[in-house]
Batch of 2 targets.
Target 1
Amino acid sequence: MSAAKENELGRRDTGTLGKLMVLLDVVTHADGPMRFTDILALSDQPRGTLHRQLSHLVEEGLLEIDADGRYSSGLRLLDLASRSWARNEFRLIAEPHLRALQDLTGETVHLGVLRGSSIIYLDKFEGQQPVRMYSQIGNTSPVYCTGVGKAALSILPRERVAALVADLAFHQFTANTHTADTLLAEIEEIRKQGHAFDREEHEVGIRCVAAPIWSENLSLVGGVSVTGPAYRLTMERLSEWAAPIRKTAEQIREAMRIGLGPRR
Amino acid sequence: MSAAKENELGRRDTGTLGKLMVLLDVVTHADGPMRFTDILALSDQPRGTLHRQLSHLVEEGLLEIDADGRYSSGLRLLDLASRSWARNEFRLIAEPHLRALQDLTGETVHLGVLRGSSIIYLDKFEGQQPVRMYSQIGNTSPVYCTGVGKAALSILPRERVAALVADLAFHQFTANTHTADTLLAEIEEIRKQGHAFDREEHEVGIRCVAAPIWSENLSLVGGVSVTGPAYRLTMERLSEWAAPIRKTAEQIREAMRIGLGPRR
DNA sequence: AAATAGAGTTCCAAATAATAGAACAGAATA
DNA sequence: TATTCTGTTCTATTATTTGGAACTCTATTT
């Protein structure tokens, strides 16, 4: 009797799955393991219902429950994600170019894609020091305070950027973090330049240059970036790298066009 | 009218979620993107039903569909998994000990947990060379051909091992890969020794030593291993490392007992 | 030690979502 | 143009999920 197949945000209804994913998100985004009652307080479901939903998630390995009855996210996710990552076409195509860019600059190179209003990091190449890689891969950051995020926005149609920015909550991470107005202004600048800087907007002492990568129909929008400590990456240095990073982005874009071109 | 809440394997029914997870598994385990018809052939659902299920998975970001209508696993999984990994208590507790073991041996150190009949790798520490880390983390390997797997089995009650082995399909990866009989025999040996070797049983040219780690009630069963190329890791060398690796495992076990001890 | 409160689990009729099958549409092929 | 193959939409039927209450177990209070 009700009606709509879409909710107010234009997302289509995903029925039972949608409700379970909300729970999975709640537990996964929590600071630590949650007790049944904690989750109950955040979900507007009756106890019996919530109990069954959590049981199903646990049974499937998406959540785990410890000896104290506290829920945390399950390792099944790791298995699924590692396969997803290993086979990701964008990442596979970009890999050699990222490696080359890392060799050229000696600094950390990231590959990211736009998903909703966040950038999700798909890959990372660091220099000499054996660093924890997983620490970044899979992480998400807001679009408005990362080089890749701003670069990605710069190639979207203005109305899409406006809609996206309108729904955004701007958290001020540093003194340089954008607000809606300054962000929109800078996007215009980036459109002309073809590359974006992150001037310690997310983390004090960290700067980066980024260039956008996109597929023909915008089904994939992302970017590459070179990141490093501000003392080493002066703005002059970053500006010098703008050209090579745009070139890398261009090469990846071209490789994807070919890679995806022949319809099998 | 039917009846059972459990299926033949003792797994409880997870309703709609279970059906969707089967699909997610099918797509995730495939070699490449799958077309609708490919999935239809593997699932015993009617077309209309399958179509809606896939739509829901795509809408939630668990699957993605490309311009050619081919399905592959979605990046939402990466985000969820990276959080799951970052907060994993076992991994956090084990980290310093793994690092120390890596320093001591100079070879690759793995942390794994038993999940069903597979070992899922939770962490990895390599030496000097900046190697792709994600390449192993989240990967799963059969219990019967990994050091960590055999070590883990050795601390399970015999009847659980027997049940697990009975359900296993033994794929012969190398000339040294175990069969059910040789595996059960070796498990007995490992019980006495306290450590397990992988004598090129999974991959030719790769050897390892592993020791089990487990929580009091066996809610967590896993192990640490030191892995490397056979030319460098002679059996003598591996035997020398058996004691330190057992000690590392013991330290992690103790740290977990304390870490999990005080019930908050 | 008994009583009480808190947390989690189980149960079942009612509400809702998923299903099966057929009809429909679009693209590729003959 | 006709035909087949692939994917999408629709609807009555069926199955699952829901919500609320009753129940169990454990910790806390009197």
Target 2
Amino acid sequence: MPRSTPAPRTGRPRSAAADAAILAATREALVELGWSRLTLGDVALRAGVAKTTLYRRWPGKNELVVDAVAELFDELELPDRGSLAADIEGVVLRFAAILARPEARSGLMAVVAESTLDATLRERIRTSIVERQKRLVREGKARAQRRGELPPDPDPEAADRSVDLIFDVVAGAVVHRSLVSAGPVDEVWVRDLTALLLAGLGSGPAGR
Amino acid sequence: MPRSTPAPRTGRPRSAAADAAILAATREALVELGWSRLTLGDVALRAGVAKTTLYRRWPGKNELVVDAVAELFDELELPDRGSLAADIEGVVLRFAAILARPEARSGLMAVVAESTLDATLRERIRTSIVERQKRLVREGKARAQRRGELPPDPDPEAADRSVDLIFDVVAGAVVHRSLVSAGPVDEVWVRDLTALLLAGLGSGPAGR
DNA sequence: ATGGTTACGCTACGACTCGTAGCGAAAGCC
DNA sequence: GGCTTTCGCTACGAGTCGTAGCGTAACCAT
């Protein structure tokens, strides 16, 4: 989904294969070069298309990288493992696996950095990535409430706030752990995180 | 601290004022241009020094920005407000205030993104920023344990894991909330976050 | 088929930034 | 005063940027 095309009814249609090739080439370049040394000319070369074709579809490097990275997160799913704790551990491990890939690491943080001065880009990130993955939190929460592991929400407004908060805490913690602290997101860490989320600080990381 | 100078005993000494001017100019340029459009030539011009002087002190843009941003977080302190919950709320609000500044937003995320392909830069970030601010968690935790709000740690190894986890969860949540989700870190959100940290998911955001 | 319309590949362009080299002058220690 | 290092300045080749112009290719409507 490069951009919202007004869908012209006539003329030569845009090649869908070119889209896929460009996004794949972008991820490949992210792995080898990182964000700063990635150039659109290089991406065009890898994808086997002309540089001008690239500029016809995306406004610039930032938007291209957002679309290339967003595809990575669409494969996320919430496995039903029978309990809230197990569900959380499962999805966090999958999320961490995606974040371990270099194209996700360098691409995601770079566009977030760029979005601080570009409201349009920020909105693109929000709709393409953030809002899209909140479905995981909603699903996991509803599942836990059906199981009786979580109390029902007092009102819809509080429910929304709860979803937003959980999403920021979980996603933020995993991102910070793997990208900033540069520590492993392994089973030990995930178990500690889940314990903290479920029971709070009082229990401590060793208690379980 | 541009870099570890071997401290030559002879010759003209490096101007300390130039260091400060360069770092301040870097932050100023980050505000106006963001990371990608920031050029070292422009920073040198703003700081009133020659471009060559800049290259003599820092290897490149990444290292310069790390140092410029690291200074911002040194002003963080942990106010003693009498309870663990109040302490957390206080430091989170201060942290968010720093993250609200454009020079911190764009600079921090950009260098984190760059560090994914540069182990040296990653280490520089870890020592200059991350490890330095973990003191807040250690202090807050020790204080709460003295008050009896938190149980003592079973062993030093578990204590370290606990500090790392709390730091990633708190810092990650605040960063994710303000930079990725682009939501406000206000008193309402901080209260919900603190409640989640202390009591876990069971209580919900409305319970307090 | 034929003509209309749009996408495509290709080439070329001026403007800009990069990081480095070389120079003479300035600033501090012996 | 003599030595050493930093400083400001200028200049340089290399590389990237985003755009314009052109002829060709692909699809739709008649």
